[in-house]
């Protein structure tokens, strides 16, 4: 069932466009050394944006350096410059799809992407 929903997502839900946007943004961010961590987060969201069904977002386990103040700072920078706008776009798409009965599964996936777009650092997709 997840495979069928993922194929429908790519074709009708905008999955290929979401993937392409995040990959291009990630490549542009990786051009600079400062943007590499943000580009890696774009690649993480791109993977979820292409095949969202059957995947879940979880808090990542603390590494050897603990939970880290750096992750919090990076999340705040991400939120201020990109997270709010990405969140609002996925939220708008999700609400628009939720109006139709057939679009409800796609709306749920857009809400999943919206949550990850707010604070991607310290989270992983499983």
Which residues form runs of ≥5 with pLDDT under 50?
Answer: none
Q: Residue share in helices?
A: 55-70%
The count of domains is: 1
**Number of distinct helices:** 5
Radius of gyration: 15 Å
Features of the shown structure:
mainly alpha; globular
Give your account of this protein's structure.
The protein contains five helices and two strands. The mean pLDDT is 91. 68% of the residues lie in helices and 5% in strands. It has one domain. α2 packs antiparallel against α3 and α4 (69-98) packs antiparallel against α5 (104-118). With 126 residues, it is mostly helical.
Characterize this entry briefly.
This protein is mostly helical.
What is the fold's blueprint, element by element?
Blueprint: H1 2-12, H2 15-29, H3 36-50, E1 57-59, H4 69-98, H5 104-118, E2 123-125
Antiparallel strand pairs: 1-2
């Amino acid at each position: 069932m997840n495979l069928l929903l993922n194929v429908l997502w790519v074709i009708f839900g905008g999955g290929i466009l979401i993937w392409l946007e995040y990959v291009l943004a990630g490549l542009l961010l990786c051009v600079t050394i400062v943007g590499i961590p943000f580009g890696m987060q774009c690649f993480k969201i791109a993977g979820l944006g292409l095949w969202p069904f059957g995947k879940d977002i979880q808090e990542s386990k603390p590494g050897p350096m603990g939970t880290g103040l750096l992750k919090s700072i990076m999340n705040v920078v991400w939120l201020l410059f990109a997270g709010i706008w990405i969140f609002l776009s996925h939220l708008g798409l999700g609400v628009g799809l939720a109006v139709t009965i057939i679009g409800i599964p796609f709306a749920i996936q857009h809400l999943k992407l919206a949550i990850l777009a707010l604070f991607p650092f310290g989270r992983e997709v499983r």
